[in-house]
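Hello Y.,

Per our agreement to keep a running log of every chain we model this quarter, I'm adding this entry. I've kept the format consistent with earlier entries: sequence first, then predicted structure.
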Amino acid sequence: MLALLLLPGVVAAQPEPPMVLNGQVYINDVEAEDGTLVEAKIGGAPVANCTTQTAEGKKGYYVLAFWDGGGDEVHLFVGGVEANESPVDYEMGSQDLDLNVTVVVPTVAFSAAAYSVGEGGGSAPITVNLSAASTQTVTVHYATSDGTATAGSDYTAANGTLTFSPGNTSKTFSVSILEDALVEGNETVNLSLTNPSNATLGTPSTAVLTIVDNDAPHISVDPMAKNFGSINVSSSSSPQTFTVRNVGNADLTVGTINITGTNANQFTIQNDNVSNETIIPNGSATLQVVFSPTSTGGKSATLNIPSNDPDEATVLVSLSGSGVAEGPGPGPAEYNLTVDMLGDISKWDISEQGNLLEPLQVSSADNKVIISLDKDASCLDKEDNRLSTITISNQTDCPPVPEDYDIIGTAYEFQPAGAKFAPSLSLTLSYVDNDIPQYVSEEDVYIAYYDTTAENWVPLTSQVDTENNIVTAPVSHFTTFAIMGAAIPPTPANFSVTSLDLSNKQVEPGQEVLVTVNVTNIGGCEGSYALNLTINGAVEQTKTVTLAPLASDTVTFTVTKEEPGSYTISVDGLTKEFSVAALAPSWLSRYWWTILIGLVVVGLLLFFFRWWRQKKAVS
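Predicted structure for the entry above:
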């Protein structure tokens, strides 16, 4: 019914708005889909929003009505992208304005090519991401199929459609896992994405979910690769520790561990508490390896850890290092990157040039903050020197946030200021549902950083996992970070009255005339509106209609008039006319004198006839 919004007769439950914009929205010169968000902002502050609807068989119609402003420019956005026609001057009254935005069609893909879940995990959350926010609603079909796992006995088959609202970049679906008591090893489920709309399939569009058998031993080794750095020939590195864990549900029996490869003789196992041992579920044991190069150049070997894990009989751990002729080698024992995560200290190996020698991942004790960096990531301070410390603390004196925006949960200060990373550090912050303020959409929250130079908050491209209540974003430098969201209250109820119609335009005295009018609430809140029916300027009837946002209703009045003449019907500025015709004179009123003369003649004839008969009878 949105077509009615664009016709004359817009009224409001409060004084008439000083500015009303309406027209059709196009995305890449194509009519926008229904439900596309259209916003108006003045000075960066939202003043009105609506979603497009179909009108008169055409998609993409919008109406914006707002009261804020004072002669400033109005910026118009479609799905978060500023329209090509924006900005426009702030002017009172109604304006017809079509909007067009040029956008890049995003790709849709799984967040990873491989997922895993324990057999007793209940369900596995699977995240699907858009490469960029879209101004259109994006959909994609997902489905599971059997790998080595069987639907109905190992997992519950899942299929459906994910819908990304304009501006949203992340959605999650779940695969339910069925637990059994069989020792069957790890099993796999195939995942696929198909039939995207307003997007194209990206990579990966297929993925594999591994169900980790919890009825068998399962080995985990940390780390899975170790670079000992540069060590002087005929010297030895400090011992590096490897931890073997049993993350399964049965005893893990480990065989004899050995080192193989071209340079196996350059690496030595020490303090071996793992070989030929049995590790109970959730238990662990350690061993150490030392690198002792006998010549210059790069060296490599493989640490082999055999066990009774049904899925991975032998774990292969990569060992590497370099032998140098002289000078201290900047290996793991020489340089560390110290991470202070809310008071918890950890150390990570880093080269003299500032490149991590191992993957870094640190979580706070409450798991509300997680940072991670890839191996070989560059970690430098603002002077481009090797970074030695990272400190993360609660921000006690948080910078102010713009009006209508909220910090969700806690803000965190990352030091040292000016630290930079390539590729970017991955930051994950978590929240609880009660942290989300009123009018903030959970799907639209994001991580923002505080720009100390511009003194404002800057949003980062973020991925929201609403099922696990986490937000993840790439970070390339340090400052204050927090989860933020825009609290945009809905616009007040605002009513459009259109399509005044009469059942008859000419009637006889006393005949009913049905007066109908369409009313639509184009605002963002439910509201009521009183409709006055006036006839020739006098109010004769009043009806009140209550409507939800974007709802419409037809209101009917019944009118009867006895007096012949013309009548002007008016409802909220819309007018129509009807007339009551005078009754035509009857044949009796038109020929009464003729009838009267006829009656007199008949009466006289009867009189003389009777007189003649009486006279004849006497004679």
